[in-house]
Every structure is written in C-alpha cells, then in structure tokens.
Amino acid sequence: MIALGAGPQTWAVAAAPSAPSTAGPGEDQPAAAVKIDNFTFSPNPLTIEKGTTVRWTNHDDVPHTVVADDKSFKSKALDTDDAFTYTFTKPGTYSYFCSLHPKMVAKVVVK
Predict the structure, then answer these.
(1) Strands 83-87 and 53-58
(2) Residue of 33, 40, 24, 45 lying closest to 85 (CA atoms)
(3) Chain segment 45-86, per-residue pLDDT in tens
(4) Which of 14, 38, 52, 64 has the most Cβ atoms closer than 10 angstroms to its Cβ?
(5) Cross-sheet strand order for the sheet of 83-87
(6) What three-state secondary structure class fits 40?
(7) Which pTM was predicted?
(8) Is 15 helix (H, G, I), strand (E, B) or coil?
C-alpha cells in the first residue's frame, strides 16, 4: 500500500539517449592509418599485428583505390577525404596498389 503525501519520494530520471555509433556490431575502431597523398601510400610498408584494422584515407584531389594483389580486399574509388577500412586476420605480407594509378604500390606486413 502506498500512502500519497507521506514520506520521501523518489523519482526515476531517464538517461538521455546516447549518440548513435558509426561502428557496426563487433567492429573495432581502426588502429592503423595509411594516408593517400601526392600519389603515394604512407607509411609504406606498414607493419601491424594480426587482427588490426587499417584505415586508408585519400587526401589527394583525384580518386584512388586500394586493391590487394591477391584480391583479398578492394575499395571503391575513394574521392578526397573518403576512407576504406580492412581488418587483417592472418599473418603475411599483403601487396596492394591503386587500380586507377597502377604505379602506386605499397605493402602491409601482418605479424
């Protein structure tokens, strides 16, 4: 039985909704970054641990792509400030290039 007006009252306050996450379920934030600038990938080579997600961001004024030689990953054409991420789950050396500018080549070494 509840007696109205008698004793202290407690009010529940709903928490404000949190901002939506841009990461999907189980996705981690990128731990390594490659800059695409001046028709180069930097750093090159990039050495990371297995399970690391790499984020490539295009800072050039022309589109570029990120394509593995073995086709294990492939981005769409990235306009200025667009990014592409890929998580490396197996050790190895992954050579990649820009399919729009095939002389742009680089490597990711996964330990």
Answers:
(1) antiparallel
(2) 33
(3) 999 999 999 999 999 999 999 999 999 999 999 999 999 999
(4) 64
(5) 40-42, 32-37, 53-58, 83-87
(6) strand
(7) 0.73
(8) coil
